[in-house]
Amino acid sequence: MGIIMALIVFSIVILFHELGHFLLAKKNGIGVTEFALGMGPTLLSFKRNETVYALKLLPLGGSCTMVGEDTDETGDNSFNAKGPWQRLSVIAAGPVFNFIMAFVFAMILLLLVGYDTPAVYKVIDGEPAAEAGMMAGDVIKAVNGKKIHTYKEFRTESMMNTSGKPMEILLERDGEEIRTTVTPVMAENGYYRIGLYGGAREKTGFWGTFKYTFYELKYWITTTVRSLGMLVTGRVSMNELSGPVGIVTMIDDTYNQSAAYGWLDVFLNMLNISILLSANLGVMNLIPIPALDGGRLFFILIEIIRGKPVPPEKEGWVHTVGFVCLMVLMVFILYNDIQKLI
């Protein structure tokens, strides 16, 4: 059942991404020849007007195939016939829709369970937090000058401190602000710890929930960007990358652990994973990687700046090389995921 749940989560995230491309293509008068969920041989399909709607065998991926997107067609309804701003809106719609999906799902989650407050409810004796004078009931307001709105923001700041540098923490205690410095120590799992617990859930009104939903979306976007930065700078090993197999395994494990607590717990966990994946997919598709949405956006922006497009053969060559590199990376990630399962 966990595997089925993983496929459902993947399908929803990908479907929403491709729906963004589809709706903006239609709005800008671009013909869509196929709108498909999945990859490989077609299982089911039907045609309405010019578009074939299809469900394919492999339940990972999807596509919105537009007239002239990867060809030289220049008819009135082709992708190539539209202005750069129209084409930019169509390509950008995919990741933007992922952010919209993440926002909507995050708001549902917060309405149901509330946001995780940055309040401390337990400090472990003898650990760095206790030695720095932190106490249960303290509210964390900032770390190293960065404002903290939720406990997960604070936890991430602590986990991403991979060098054990002292953390300047601003607290609120009984209405007064207190500043302290905590120096993390290395834990057995290879991460640094400071020895405290927090993050009690608290519900607020509709507008309060709306505000914290923005913080939730911002958290997942910035965490994805920072994680990629740590990967590029070598602070995170390539072996820690996970692809579809690793993600499916993670969803399966989460489902099996939460199923014992009932369907509501399963639903909340799947909702949280969907937020993470959707925000992650949105960020990845805005990075100027050839063959992905970000690479296409990059060339359209160059066209806007130059006043003329990059020669199609040169852009096509870049995307081809980028696609080959992505396939090599995917093989490495797949191998890495399988190794973790062995």
Explain this structure to me?
- By secondary structure, this protein is of the alpha+beta class.
- The protein folds into 2 domains: 84-114 and 214-342, no CATH class; 115-202, Roll (Pdz3 Domain), CATH 2.30.42.10.
- It is 52% helix and 20% strand.
- The protein has helices at residues 2-27, 84-113, 128-131, 151-159, 206-232, 244-259, 263-284, 293-306, 312-341, and strands spanning 32-48, 51-66, 115-116, 120-123, 139-143, 146-147, 167-173, 176-182, 185-186, 192-193, 196-198, 201-202.
- The mean pLDDT is 88.
Give the SSE map:
Blueprint (H helix, E strand, L loop, with lengths): L1 H26 L4 E17 L2 E16 L17 H30 L1 E2 L3 E4 L4 H4 L7 E5 L2 E2 L3 H9 L7 E7 L2 E7 L2 E2 L5 E2 L2 E3 L2 E2 L3 H27 L11 H16 L3 H22 L8 H14 L5 H30 L1
Antiparallel strand pairs: 1-2, 3-12, 4-11, 5-6, 5-7, 7-8, 9-10
Helix pairs in contact: 1-2, 1-6, 1-7, 2-5, 2-7, 2-8, 5-7, 6-7
